[in-house]
Amino acid sequence: MIFEEEEMDDKDEYFRQLYALNDSSDEEEDTNNAREILKQSSRPPSSSFSVSSHSFSARRSQPSKTLGNISAIHRTTSAPASSTSVVRETPLLTRKSSKLRYDISTPEMNQTFSASTPPTLSSIPAPAPQRSVSTSELDTGPKLNMVPSAGINAMLSKPDERKKRKRKETPVILVPERERIFAGKTIFFIPPNDKHSVREARITNAMKYGATWTKKWTPDITHIIVDKEYKFEQIMGMLKPLMKTDSIPQNIILVNDKYTVDCIRDKILVDETQSRYIIRRDVPVTEEQEIRQPAEPRKALRIQRRKSKKDQDTPDDHTQRSEASTQSQHPQDQPDSSPGVWLPTTNAEPPVIVESPRERSPMLDVALGEGSELDTAIAEIMRFGDLPLDDDDDEEERPSSSEGNTDPDHDGSSEEDLRPRRRTKKRKKFQKQGDANSAAYVCMTGGTGITDETNPNRHTIQILEKMSKYYGRMSDTWRELSYRKACGTLRKQGVWICTFDQAFELPFIGERIATKIEEIAITGHLRRLDNAELEPEDHLLKLFLGIYNVGPVEASKFIRAGYKTLDDLRTKARLTKCQQIGLDHYDDFATRIPRDQMTALGEIVKAMAKPIDPDVNPIIGGSYRRGAKDSGDIDFIFTKPGTTHAHDLHYFLSSLVSRLTSTGFLTCALATPSHRRDDDSGSKWHGACVLPGNPIWRRIDFLLVPESEIGAALIYFTGDDIFNRSMRLLASRKNMRLNQRGLYKDLMRGPGRLKLNEGELVEGSDEKRIFEILGVPWKKPENRICH
DNA sequence: AGGCAGCGCAC
DNA sequence: GTGCGC
DNA sequence: GCCT
User: Fold this and answer.
1) I want to staple A683 with a disulfide (CB 3.0 to 4.6 A). Which of A352, A639, A691, A704 is the partner?
2) Ranges A10-14, A384-388, A492-496, A758-762, most confident
3) Cα–Cα dist A591/A636, whole Å
4) How much is the average pLDDT of A67-81?
5) Tell me, in Å, how far CA of A367 is from C1' of B8?
6) Quick check: A648 and A708 in contact, CB under 8 A?
7) Same domain, yes or no, for A469 and A569?
8) A516 is catalytic
9) Nucleotides on chain B within 7 angstroms of protein Cβ
10) Global pTM?
């Protein structure tokens, strides 16, 4: 590797090597887009291989490697142990290292070293051997931190290239004193120079926040920040000669380059023991090991995955699969007929496959499980299958649908051969439904009334939902969405979907998810999920995200700050008012509300509303309106005949809230209507309530809706979520816009889909009319369950 | 290769 | 403007 | 992740 051949006779040479290493580095971590950083940092490593960088690989027991656990990687422990492992594992590196150590630790070398670098030493006024550097010395500030001595530069720089780039002594401007999170800290960067622009920025930033940067090994060092491409073994090789010991002193924090970035962003010294700051080891961990790591006991079912790894996101390669699904035009596809991916084990439960996927369409399945009304709706869709569902501007969409589906009976066209998978897939997905429009929008078919208890795919759904939630935690919005949509599709199926081909046919299930569905069907597990939920940080994330008003961003901050428990948050974290309440009633808000209690809550509110204004009509929306047996919270919509603005109902709301508060029913407010005059917003109230005799706080929302918007609002607040988004997407495709206020047409969008005008209100008050106009068959609320 | 719904409220 | 919730 |  990098230390390769060269003999290093002196430290110059030694650092030259460092530079060489360094030159390969590059990154863009210093961007401060919080979202991006969060994503990068908290998203699970996309390939199972890269997972190895953190806790997983560390945790796996590797008899031959001594690093048994995470803590071994941290500064506080085990440097000796790891060093021995280095010796064993990487002889070359070790040889170099020890040579280095020998060379560098010779007395004269040390002399040269310190002689040439007095400024660094002198820059610390009180070279207190004790780590307690007072902040006052730090206040002597910027220049103290900078001024690398000529001597050191000479030594550290590759003379030629470095010269010009030599930064003009741009004084580091310190942030206000109280923000200097690194005050009193002396940081040693590896490589120990600012040659790379990104590292330079990192160093400068650290100094802005009070750090002292040292290029030389001094006893004052509190932190070692290592560029991410350095492996632990390399670092130890470099440091041992400097430290003259085999392990890093316990009081020195050794972390990778994410550390300062996080600290600065969060304005706090984050917990350095988190896995994301661990320096990677050079321990090779193979993909195979990685994959089955958590599933040791289940080896029997192990999969025989091919090695093609072009797909960085998961080890799954669907190519064969896809071809299989294309080629197998035989109606009798076996569940395990797909080549090579699974080792079909005999103990895999024989799926109760009703029939070949080719002969059964999703729509038929839906119909089987459907009540009469939706039956009708579906029949309607199918009847209109080849006809325009809408009377208007559908032209652009039609071609695609006719192309894919002009005549289902002629599907063997030569064109198919050119793009086998896509064509096949597309056509399959659309042919039964007839119209591309209907296939693409969940709202067209809605839910089925197949309950979770009886759904043949309930187990698969459960697992995929967990995947969805996992991705949600990771702020991977779109994967989360995809999995939820896939669940929605699955929920509508009347038969157990247990093969790739079956699954792949269905809308919103692509190669990746189809593969996973098959894995679940065969093994009962999803390794990806098993892995994911083992991540230590995932627990915390789950915990913190349970707090009302704490989302992925805040939760990640908490984690980076090192908080481990809700109590940590109570005592240490700064929380907003709402978050405080959410924390105080963590368990309350996490408790589902049984339907009968929902009804009881409803009665209380309605009884209170009546005397205030008998004309106001309270409606319980949300999952209650969809007929759910329990709900997470309760939503009220208040509307009144003749009203056209939410504002018209303000008086009602304030009166209602104050009365309910005085009776003790409402226990707190979380969000109250804003009172901007110029705009008729100010329509929602969020808070908490209790049922008399029951101490559990419940989340409750009030919504003011003018009669003119009640239809749209009902759609909105009845949901579910997927159904709504689907409706809106459909509207948008028709150059219309659907929101909680109404359905608008002739919406014009400019470049960058900027809204050019509001569009003309088509319908707002009549729920059914909105369905109609959008060409969506009417669905009762209970049939809008799509996920 | 780009989109994925759109808005109100707190901070 | 961001974060969050719906 | 899926879809266009």
Assistant:
1) A704
2) A492-496
3) 19
4) 28
5) 39
6) no
7) yes
8) yes
9) 3-11
10) 0.55
